[in-house]
Structures are given as structure tokens and as C-alpha cells.
Write a structure and sequence with these properties.
Elements lengths: L9 H13 L5 E5 L5 H10 L2 E6 L2 H9 L4 E3 L11 E6 L15 H6 L7 H13 E12 L4 H10 L2 E10 L4 E9 L2
Helix pairs in contact: 1-2
Length: 184
Amino acid sequence: METEVYQPAEDSRLLAATACDEITGDERVLEVGTGSGYVAERVAAETGATVYASDLNPYACEQARNRGVPVARADLTSPFRAGVFDRVLFNPPYLPRDEDAERDDWMEVALTGGETGREVLEAFLDDVARVLAPGGSVLMLVSTLTDIEAVAAYAADRGLAAETAREEKYPFERLAILKITPEH
């Protein structure tokens, strides 16, 4: 069901473009929360990298598979072995909870990141370093709606350095791709 799956928008296109600029063909890549599979498909096609995807939403997994993306139904990085991926991509649900707009469906899961908008991405940052190969990094989309500086500080508290790889401004928010690497 397309209405149950996050479809590509400006945030997806920004993550995909940044990933295509950063990734080389010999990398193993995981896109967490793939949604429709747009980013994973584009990165695989444009870079030649080996790209896998995951999503909690079974409808998203089906759409990604229909795009030819190998996908696992999974919660963030939990089922993946340690040290496997050179890059991990993530466009997390980052909107702060709005009780007036809440829905009880998969789109709510895809869009809402809890009270602050950071709950899902914080859970991701708690575990992502485990699945990175030596020298690996994360490209994660964040928004001023979730406080980009707070996300970078949370990452730093977990031994992860975050720098802005790219950003775009819109009338209602600024989107940034943070490149996150373990501090050694």
C-alpha cells in the first residue's frame, strides 16, 4: 500500500545525492528505514556499491523489494552483524510528536520521532557504530525541527563525531546530512 509507505521527497533526494557523491563502488552499504527503497536503489545504480536495506514497515519492505533492493524487515540495526557495513544511510522519522495530527498507522511511524523528534535517531546512534566496518561512516538526515546541534551532541556523547556534509534550506526548516564517524 503506497499510502502506508514514505515516498521520496526533498529529504530523500538530499540523502541520495549526498550518498552518491560520497560512496564508491566497492562499499557495502545499509540503508536503515528505506521506505519505498528510492535511496537504496539510486545509490546502488549510481555508485555500483552493494546496497542492502531494512525497514520495520512490511509494506515498505515490499516496495523496496519491488525496486530490486535486498531488504530485511528489521528495527534499525539490531539484526545485523558487527563490522559489516562501510556506510549506513538513515533518513529517520524526525518530526516531533503532534498530538493533534497523530494517526495510528505506518505513516505515523515513518514521520514521528517521539516527543522531541529525536527518539528514533538516538536509538539508532546508540547502536550504529557496532555495524560499521573500520573506517566506516554514517550519512544521516536531520532537520532544524529536531535540533541539529542536539543530535550532534548526542552523537558526541557516544564517541561519534558529526559534521555537516550538505544542507538545504526550506521555508519551514533546514535539512542537513550529518556525516558521522566513530572517534578513534
